[in-house]
Design brief:
Chains A, B: It comes from Roseomonas elaeocarpi. The structure is a homodimer. By secondary structure, the first copy, chain A, is mainly beta. The first copy, chain A, has helices at about 70-80, 145-150, and strands spanning about 5-10, 20-30, 40-45, 50-55, 60-70, 85-95, 100-105, 115-120, 135. Helices cover about 10% and strands about 45% of the residues of chain A.
Chain lengths: ~160, ~160
């Protein structure tokens, strides 16, 4: 089973910007995600690419099945079947000690929220945290994108950072 | 937008069997379908083929996006992410006056249920009903496969036929 092992953190300050090597604009929506837990079906568009992704429930190791689909289909599915469960974010790739961190800067109703994610090879993999990384939120369902997609404001903790 | 226009009927007797030209065994499951209405995400396996299918809510015309996926993925998704929302049925292809009818004989907890479906090119297309077709259930959510998949018995009307 293909598995995504991911850890997720809040972000402190903007020192991460200095290390950014690449930027992608993501638009993504969710078909019928459960409240908080459960599997999700995501449609994501970035540049000329679009993907349909099924993710299992468990964090930080989640089953993940991803398939490329025609961008025109993805646009229609986002528009007609994802309701208002949409996310727009700018993903910044920031290499740090051999891993690529993804720093996602959200816009729209989630403006102000910035999350850093990193994919690991196995759950116990030692992780060198960059200095700009804040509290870990891997296990906090409120920070799952499928949950954020239904939110009208960023989770409250973000404001403390 | 790719659209599936489908009408669905109960089946009376088994005279349809004489016209059957092909049989496929289907196993399919659903990721997070809503109660009764709403979009669905289906995983279907038949023979060496597997498909991931997103369907919109509206009957008889529903948006439908279908993508082939590796059968091994489909097996895993069925097993690990569809819970007990599974359907097993034997599909019989029965040509009638220029259209191919699909007569689905369900098994497992839905044993005894037989439904006939036919795909149309447009919603108002005149339809010559075979003599073995019973009451139409196109608009009856209980007969949606995503709803049947959560049922432990066939809908009650079936028993009257």
């Amino acid at each position: 089973m293909p598995v995504e092992i991911e850890r997720k953190f809040l972000v402190q300050g903007d020192r991460w910007r200095a290390g950014c090597t690449q930027i992608h604009e993501f638009r993504q929506g969710y078909l019928m995600s459960h409240e908080g837990a459960g599997a999700t079906v995501r449609v994501r568009i970035f540049g000329d690419h679009a993907f349909l992704t099924i993710k299992g429930a468990k964090s930080p190791s989640r089953a993940e099945y991803e398939y490329p689909i025609p961008p025109a289909d993805a646009e229609e599915i986002l528009r007609s079947l994802c309701g208002d469960r949409l996310i727009e974010k700018r993903r910044h790739c920031v290499p740090h000690q051999g891993l690529i961190w993804s720093v996602d800067v959200f816009s729209g109703s989630l403006a102000g929220l910035i999350l850093a994610e990193v994919e690991l090879s196995h759950p116990e993999q030692p992780l060198a945290l960059p200095s700009w990384v804040g509290p870990e939120v891997t296990a906090d369902h409120r920070y799952r994108n499928s949950v954020l997609a239904r939110s009208t404001t960023p989770p409250r903790e973000k404001l403390k950072v």
